[in-house]
Amino acid sequence: MAQYKILGRDPYWMNFYGLMILTAIEVGAVGADMSSTAEALNMSEDGITLWILTIIAIPKFFMIAAIFMHLYGDPDSGILTMTALFPAFFIIIMILFIGLTHPDAATGLPAWCRPGTWGL
Amino acid sequence: MFDYDLELSEHVYTGEGLIWMFVAIVITSIGMFVFWRQDLSFDGTYEPLATGSPFKNIQIRKVGMFVFLMSEMMVFTSLFSTYMRYRLGLRRCDDVFADGLFDPVANPTGWQEAVPVTCFEPASHLIASSWWHLAPGAVNTFALIISSFTIVQALRYAKKTDIDEELRRRRVTMFLGTTWVLAILFLTLKMVEWFVGFYIPDLGFIHEHEIKSLVAEGYTIGADHYQHHSYVDEATGAHMTANIRVSASTFYVTTGTHGAHVAGGIIGLTYMTYKAWRGGYTPTNAVSIEYFGLYWHFVDLVWVIVFPFFYLY
Fold it and tell me: A90 to chain B nearest CA, in Å?
């Protein structure tokens, strides 16, 4: 169990409160009218929602992993965190190079990085 | 862009991969059985520790659980990247609808009535359309977070040495039982959202609502003539129909895989709650709750990503 405190209080309770608040903001952000913000930032409302959801999901992810899963603060946290990060390379490949590439990428790439340019 | 209709029609699934799915289920089941058998008689006197680097002096079962969770992470990463790829590769159906009704002269690129358009229709278009539609998913999110907290509390009380045995037994049972109830609630609301829907009567301060399930709305993996109620041209009354098989499949496969993990967790929780009720957990063998807790937190972790990107966005 965690031997540290967050703001002088029990870390599990603090984590629980934090997760509940962040989730409430997340749900609220979807219902909120952000048209004026979108206009001011020259973005679409969907784009702003996506940013908010991403920004909230990241700390939630770390709060669960670090505090509830004890990947922070325990004697074996370091090596277990490294184990947890092991598939990071695979995840980067899947998300960045497969998930985020456009289906047109193969034909839409600049000429210098398309097959043929290097005599292959 | 790819012609997804052509892609789909050329790839008829014949089920040849099913055998590997069953092999994987059998291997996982054997692993779970060994884990359970080890836990059944585990009194804390012999918890095997790793002897070699880099996990020296760390419980082998704990390391094994993390390695298992990493393989799970890869499974969900595959599902997420599939979703992202299709979501980026196909135009959103409401964008296609915004192009307007086809007219050979004025709008030659518009949609035509009764000619389905292949486009991406995120489930959030239905789910996030009102607070009532969103309610099951939102309640489920809070339920999973609370259940993550209750399982930590179960572990805390199981490890406490300064309380009497009866109080420990009652507290651990209560927290594990609460986790079990929340997991059941999660799957129940998932079924309501997918298949059943719900009805809110007129209560004066709340107006009458009938919330249809996703399936009743026509959001299914076979929907090649899907009609959202907003895809109607106001001037002519023409309906835009859409082929949304790809978007519905990514939604149901990803959220369904997550739901299957919750169902697996319920099986484990049933056994653990029973064991706790029998007074089976003591400070010396409480680590079993910790190992299961790792799995359960991982299920919550996945939901942290699934909920915003499949339900809200």
Answer: 7
> CA of B120: how far to CAs of B2, B35, B94, B195, in Å?
13, 42, 9, 21
Report CA-CA distances (Å) from B298 to B84, B137, B256.
21, 18, 16
ipTM of the complex: 0.82
pTM listed for this prediction: 0.88
Q: How far apart are CA A28 and CA A115, in angstroms?
A: 48
Domains defined for chain B, CATH in brackets: 4-312 (1.20.120.80)
- Structural tokens at position B234: 């106001």
CB contact under 8 A, A69 and B297: yes
Contacts of B292 in chain A (CB under 8 A): none
Residues of A in contact with B54 (CB under 8 A): 79, 82
Buried b (16+ CB within 10 A) or exposed e, B233-246: eeeeebbbbbbbbb
- Say if residues B312 and A30 touch (Cβ distance below 8 Å): yes
Rg (CA), chain B: 24
Helix (H) or strand (E) holding A66: none
Question: Pick from B2, B138, B301: which is nearest to A64 by CB?
Answer: B301
Per-residue tens of pLDDT for chain B, all 313 residues: 444 454 555 556 667 778 888 898 899 889 888 878 877 777 777 788 888 888 888 988 889 899 999 999 999 999 998 898 888 888 999 999 999 999 888 888 899 988 999 999 999 999 988 888 889 999 999 999 999 999 999 999 999 999 999 999 999 999 999 999 999 999 999 999 999 989 988 888 888 888 999 999 999 999 989 999 889 998 899 999 999 999 999 999 999 999 999 999 999 999 999 999 999 899 988 888 999 999 999 999 999 999 988 988 8
- The answer to whether the beta carbons of residues B136 and B192 sit under 8 Å apart is yes
Q: How far is B142 from chain A (nearest CA, A)?
A: 7
Contact A20 B152 (CB under 8 A): no
Report whether A6 contacts A73 (CB < 8 A): no
Q: Which of B66, B126, B306 to mutate to test the interface with A (most CBs of A within 10 A)?
A: B66
Q: Which of A53, A20, A47, A27 is nearest to B134 (CA)?
A: A27
